[in-house]
Each structure stands twice: as C-alpha cells, then as structure tokens.
Amino acid sequence: MLELGGNIQLSGFSNIEPSKMIVIKKMVGNHVKKLDFTQIKVNLLKLTLKNIHSEKLFEIHGYLETNGKIYQSDATDHNLFFGLNKVLTGITPKTKE
Please, which pLDDT band fits residue 95 given cuts at 50, 70 and 90? Predict the structure, then answer.
C-alpha cells in the first residue's frame, strides 16, 4: 500500500508504471485539493485497484471518509485514467449534500 500525505491510501497500484503513477498522484492530489477548497475535510481517501483479465480491464474502488460521513464509488474500465476519474467524480457530488 502506498500512502500520500497521510490521509490518502493507494492499494494495488504497486505494479503500475512510474510514468502512469505520476499522473495518478496528480489526479488524486488535485481531487483532494478541490474538496479542501469547498471546505470538505478529507479524513481518509482510499483507492483500491484490481486488474481483471491480465491488465486488460481495471476495477477501481474508492472510499472517502469526510466530516463524519463515508462515501463509496467504484468503476470498471479498460483505461485506468478514465476509471479513476469516474471513481473520483462519483465521490465528489455525494459530498455536496
């Protein structure tokens, strides 16, 4: 498991190419900044990646703990970045209740 900033955990991302990890870290970091900008305190953001059929399909699960509430989102996609974006945007609207 990889930890970013203490409150972000990435699980299952250890086999991802370093160049792709840079983009993933930027996407996740920008998402957390966006939540902080809207005064939503992120206590824990956990992303879990599972490869299906030898890396041809990516399954990503997102877990967000903020302001005493828990939100979850998941996506399955052939493109890792599109799947990650679906999970992150799936969590975002739920926090604006």
Answer: very low
Cβ pair 87, 10 in contact under 8 A: no
pTM assigned to the model = 0.87
Domains, the chain, in order of start with CATH, read 2-96 (3.30.160.100)
> Read out DSSP for 36-59?
HHTT--EEEEEEEEEEETTTTEEE
- Rounded to whole angstroms, the maximal C-alpha distance in the chain is 40
Sign of the C-alpha dihedral computed for residues 38, 39, 40 and 46 taken in this order: positive
Give the Cα-Cα-Cα angle 83, 36, 64 (nearest 5 degrees).
45
Tens-digit pLDDT profile for residues 31-68: 999 888 887 888 999 999 998 876 689 999 999 998 88
